[in-house]
Amino acid sequence: MKTRRLFLGELLTAGAATGLAGALALGQSPNPLPPGLTGGAPNPPDPKQPSSEKAFMEANEKDLHKKVEQLYELVTELKAEADKTDSTKVLSLNLVKKAEEIEKLAHDIKIRSKG
């Protein structure tokens, strides 16, 4: 029982010493502001002018809608082809290629949706 207490006491002492040494090495100097920044309040964005982030998000949304429409068309084509083909006898190479294209497009949509 005493060996555990002794070990934990030494561990606590070593941790405290390491923490104090790190604090002394850093000193107490405040972090300076990056160049161009002052301590004042930032300028509010102009409500008449759309920000570049908003424009980017709108463009991304339009692109996303376009890609979803394209995905829908490809899936519809794949279903029509699959209905025409007897897949128990022959697996069409065109079906496989279209499925791979759908998979790539769906992955791209997923990535864009996350941000």
Short description:
With 115 residues, this protein is mostly helical.
Write up what this structure looks like:
The chain has three helices and no strands. The mean pLDDT is 75. The protein has 115 residues and is mainly α.
Would you report the number of β strands? 0
Question: Kindly state the mean pLDDT as a whole number?
Answer: 75
Q: What proportion of the residues form beta strands (DSSP E)?
A: under 5%
Distance between the termini: 55 Å
Largest sheet: none
The low-pLDDT segments are none
Q: For the CA atoms, what is the radius of gyration?
A: 31 Å
Structural class: mainly alpha
Order of helices and strands: HHH
Shape: flat
Q: What percentage of residues falls in helices of 4 or more residues?
A: 55-70%
Question: How many H/I helical runs?
Answer: 3
Provide the descriptors you would attach to this structure in a database record.
single chain; 115 residues; mainly alpha; flat
Give the secondary structure arrangement, pairings included.
Elements: H1 2-26, H2 52-84, H3 93-114
Helix pairs in contact: 2-3
